[in-house]
Amino acid sequence: GIFITFLGALLLGFNGLEAASIGIIGGADGPTAIFLSNKLLGAQEGGEAMCAIIAVVAYSYMALVPIIQPPIIKGLTTKKERKIKMEMSREVTKRERIIFPLLVMILVILFIPSCSGLIGMLMLGNLIKESGVVPNLVSAAANTIMYAVTIVLGISVGATAIGTTFLKLETLMIFGLGIVAFGCATAAGVLIGKLMSKLSGGKINPMIGAA
To answer: How many CB atoms lie within 10 A of CB 193?
Structure first.
């Protein structure tokens, strides 16, 4: 989804940085789309407005996932495949659940330091949840802090979405590319899920690919 949309955006006349920022919508993750588009387009003329458009498109399609994904999944899988009940292969220990976010943070900081802020916060949230020693902080992060950050984020994006730059053909093109990104990403994931299902002898439900 990301790469098909990247190439499509290039063909429609967007430059490489803009095409990459639009393509990341296919990752189905709003914070990543905002983070990456700001990194790539922050210094470009008109970059702020495009970042706002990409953020709005990413969150719009994230909200529409229950409408976008079901027809694609049904079109690519059989009823029998969708009924496969997956079992856990083994129990994951608490030690493993705590080591995982720490290990990911270390590896990302060493190999991709530019992403350490984004992945670091994601893994920090994972760590405080899995540690089990700060239940109040977990509850605050999942509710109060999240809602407060969402409001601030929405106001910030809205403040940069100026009518003169937002209401034009380019915006409609990005909306169109966004649905292509989500659709292709879902389809590719489900098809790989089907392959995994075949290779595992029917133990894996192909719908997991849509995740």
So the answer is: 22
Q: Minimal CA–CA distance to 35: which of 25, 45, 159, 184?
A: 25
Burial 38-55 (b: 16+ CB within 10 A, else e): bbbbeeeeebbbbbbbbb
> Please, what sign has the CA dihedral across residues 81, 85, 90, 95?
positive
- Which residue has tokens 């169109």? 176
What Rg do the C-alpha atoms of the chain give, in angstroms? 19
pLDDT digit string (tens) for 156-210? 777 777 777 677 788 888 888 888 888 888 999 999 999 999 999 889 999 999 8
Task: Determine phi and psi for 93, rounding to 5 degrees.
Answer: -75, 160
How far apart (Å, rounded) are the C-alpha atoms in residues 143 and 48? 29
Number of neighbours of residue 155 by Cβ within 10 angstroms = 9
41-64 per-position pLDDT tens digit: 877 777 777 888 888 888 888 788
Tokens of 16: 């490489």
